Each structure stands twice: as C-alpha cells, then as structure tokens.
Fold these 2 entries.
Entry 1:
Amino acid sequence: MNVEAVKWIGGTDGILELIDQRRLPAEFVKLKVRSVEQLHEAIHTLAVRGAPAIGVAAAYGPVLALQWLTGRPSLQEALDQVLKACDYLASSRPTAVNLFWALDRIRARAREVAEEPQATIQHLHASILTEANAIYAEDVEMCRRIGENGERLIRSGFGVLTHCNAGALATAGQGTALSVLFEAHTKGKQFEVYADETRPLLQGSRLTAWELQQAGIKVTVICDNMAGSLMKQGKIHAVITGADRIAANGDAANKIGTYSVAVMARHHGIPFYIAAPSSTFDLSIESGAEIPIEQRNPEEVTRFAGVQTAPNGVAVYNPAFDVTEAKLITALITEKGVIESPNTERIRELLA
Ligand code: MRU
C-alpha cells in the first residue's frame, strides 16, 4: 500500500488529504481538510502526527486560509490572513520544531511576494502553494537519503528496537528511522524489528507495526516495559528512533519513553541511533533543556480504549516527549550524513 500521510490535491483551490492516524490500524480512512481550523484540530488530535508530517501539513494551512477570503480584499489583507494562519497553526503543538520551521518558510515567502511591485493575491496564493510543495518534495528526498545513509548500520541477523512511529506515516516520504529499515530490507538484509507499543497513544503498536507489516518486515510488538528484558536476553542489537527536535549540542526530544530506552541501551552496550532530517534540528537552542515539552490531556493516561483505568480525580503526569542527552546517542543519521558521537562542533560542521 502506498502510504501518503499528507497529500495536497489540486491547485490553489485544492484540499489537503490526510490519512486519519487516529483510526489506524482498524480503519484506513482519509480525512479531507478544507480549513485552517480543521487542520489545527487534525494536528492537535494526532490525525496527522510525527515531526516532519506536521510541518508539511501545516505548510498547506495558509493556502487553505486564502481560499476563505471574502469581498474584495487588498493584498495586505491577504498577507495578514496568511500570517494569522501561520500563528494559529504554530499553537497546535509545541515540541516538534519542523512545524515552526515550515511555517517560518511560508511566512518569509509570503512577505517576499507581497513586497514585489506587481504582486497580486493570486500570485501570493500560488507562491505559498509552490513553497508548501517544495517543503513536501524536500521532505521526501531527505527521508530517502536518511535511509541510504543509515542502512549500513543494520546487519542481517539483527534485532532492532524502535519506539513510537518514525515511518512514512510521520513524514511526506518513507520516514526517518523506518526509512533506514526499509532501505536495509530492500538491500536484502534479514532482520527483525521489535516495536515498543508506546503508551499512552500506541503509535508503536498501531502505526509502526502496521507499516512494517505492509512492507513485509518481520515485526513483534512489545509493551514498553519489556524492552530492558529483551536487551538483557541479547535480542536487541540496535535501537533506532526518530526525533521531534534536536538541540545544537545533539540532545534530542522524542516520544516519551525514548530516554529510558536510550539509558537501557547504554547499560547493555547496544548502539542507540536517532534518524532525523535537518528540519528537525534547532540550532537556536544550546541544549535539550530548552526544548518545550508538550503536556497532554490526562485522559490519555486514565482511559484505555474507552475504558476507565485509573480512579476518578487521581493526579496524572502526561508529557508527550522526553529528552535524550547527546552522550547517550551513538549517532545521528541525517540526510547529509551520519554524525557519530554527536556534539555541537560535529553538528555545525555537517549542517552548515
Ligand atoms: O506525538 P507524535 O506521535 O507526533 O510523536 C512522534 C514522535 O515522537 C516521532 O518519533 C518523531 O516525531 C519523529 S517522526 C519521523
């Protein structure tokens, strides 16, 4: 099955089509997004999720916003509408930097076009669609290259642990962490993947297991608390995950639970890799301590599949992400190359 998590259909009057990831794996349903409000809701409720996919989807939001202009607006009013849409979408989720990176690109392009002497609203509209399409296409290419750069780290006979979902569903292309595995599989390597189920929202069991099954890669779902035991039994030879934001020094935020996996991998002498495109790096912050961590609805923890699983009124802590320090990361796999033992100098050198 061709997994297209995010797809723009048509020209400036088009719509955004998303795979509704809230309903996988039981149902494969496409969501048609026609307004900025609907897109904000889709991002916030994880219909579309994964750092690169959020950025790509949000880039199309201002294109939708301009479809809703009424009367005879001026170019300035159209530009204001674009900027307002960008600000609103930036409030949908705080951690994945790809969202802000993509919206900044749309803002910059819109301002640039609006300053041109012959600029029209049609021109503005077409230009931001072109920019969104470029963000989409670049993401596809970055994913492909991440796979090519990382596949050598996976060998036949490996057991590979992954956490959350960093596959095609999380990007415009073939994923980041899973792109590495897809490439290794294409090269004929025989390995097995263990997918942490990834409580509370089960991106590992619902999405990663689904994607790997579709691709014909052997996958076993485990509860998050089983990973350490598997490592001890010698069944895991590498861990690979994606990231939502990587600071200048290499500290990386990813789905809650990633940090524990990295600590356990270090204890067992297992390499821990993070695969991410350059759009996931935030060189404006020195370390992971500055990464804002999203806190989500307590009900994600107190209810499971619609059933109450904790007493009424109990306190809940539900951060969506945690930060793994660079010193626990064996290498960062990017589209530009692999950064072994990442630190500020090595990251700047490769990404500059
Ligand atoms: O809350 P989510 O599902 O958006 O979290 C996603 C992750 O943590 C992914 O690992 C990360 O965004 C990388 S996706 C290529």
Entry 2:
Amino acid sequence: MDNKEVINKTIDFVKDKLRGDSSGHDWWHIYRVWNMSKKLQEKEGGNLFIIEMAALLHDVGDWKFHEKEEEGIDIIKNWLDQSDISESVKIRIVDIISNVSFKGSGVKDKMESIEGKIVQDADRIDAIGAIGVARTFAFGGKFGNPMFDPNVKVKMHNNFEEYKNSKGTTINHFYEKLLLLKDRISTNTAKQIARERHSYMENFLKQFYDEWESIK
Ligand code: ADP
Ligand code: NI
C-alpha cells in the first residue's frame, strides 16, 4: 500500500469509529484538525505522512471514551499494524497520539517532535474560537453538565486524575482550559491563528455575562 492508500483507508476507519459522536469529537473535528495540520506543515515543515496519520487517528482512542488510556492506544497500534508502515514511523505516530491531549492547567505538555507540535496545535486551534465555543457546549450537554452557575467556582487542576473527574460548568471549562490554550501552542503559524480565536472567546464571555445580568 502506498501512503495515499493508507491515508484513505485510515479516513474510512476513523469515520466508522467516530460515527454518532455528539461530544465535539466527531469526524468533522478530525477533518478540521487534519486540514489545519496540513496547512501548518506547509509553513512549519515536518514529515507530512506522520502528521496526517497522527491528525486522523488522534481521537480514536481518546481516554474519555475508554476505561483506560492504554486501551485507546492499542486500537491505534492494531490499526497501524494492518498497513505496511515501518516500525519507526509507527512509533512516531503512536508517540504523538499518546501526548496530544490537554491534561489539566498545571500539567506540562511533553510533545517534542515538530510533527507532534503541529498536530497538537491544530487540535488546540479547533478547541478555541467560534468552533471551540460550539464544541464546548455540545460536550457539556452530552455529559450533563450545567451551562453556567455563578456559585460554582473555577478549579485549576494540577494532575490528570483531578482534571478528568471534575464536574464543573461549561463556562468554567473556558477558564480551566480554553483561555489557557493560546499560551500552550508551539508553532508561530498556529500562535497567530490562536490569537484571533482567543479574542473571539473573550468577546463571547463578555457578552454572555452582560446578557446574564440583563446589562445588554
Ligand atoms: P484534547 O483535544 O486536548 O484531548 P479534549 O478531547 O479533552 O481535549 O477536549 C476537546 C474539546 O471537548 C474541548 O476543547 C472542549 O470543547 C470539549 N470538552 C472537553 N472537556 C470538557 C468539559 N469538561 N466541559 C466542556 N467541554 C469539554
Ligand atoms: Ni481532538
């Protein structure tokens, strides 16, 4: 199989795996991350095949939808074993996917390769701006979280366990994660895009509070 074929088969595999998702991790999220990753690669470089494969597969084994993180990684390894990709490329793809997620405001990122930085940046860009707002409310609704409650305080998380088990409001998620992302983006190309999307979210929040208090 050549690279193009592997990518096309992977697209079908991912579409099938994520079918029916309503938490903001559906095929169209993957499609946007994949496209953004390719756009970032044009400016920032890196191995395009590794970037495309990691972007396409990055949410297939997401921890939120499996009992254990390792379970998700096994699904990806099994898939990669089915196409004749070299062992070293497989390792690089799996390594990116294992490190792509945001795991709490106090948990440091440890992505090292340019390929990984690009996919992580593209994933984070899709978590902010208008799409970020929409995905966050979709997620909150799906998991039964209240939209907003002025009495529920924002909580910063210093470890993944805490972050994973938190049951805050959707508005609080902006402070626990979304507004922090612009400073946790690696490439200059993505930083520029993130700045604009970040200010869009700030405007959204301002309008939201004004409407909440009947100011506007
Ligand atoms: P990552 O892409 O870093 O793994 P997640 O998959 O945890 O991040 O989150 C992707 C998106 O899902 C977030 O950007 C947000 O829109 C939504 N999301 C995740 N956790 C929450 C939450 N607790 N409340 C609201 N939205 C959430
Ligand atoms: Ni994602």
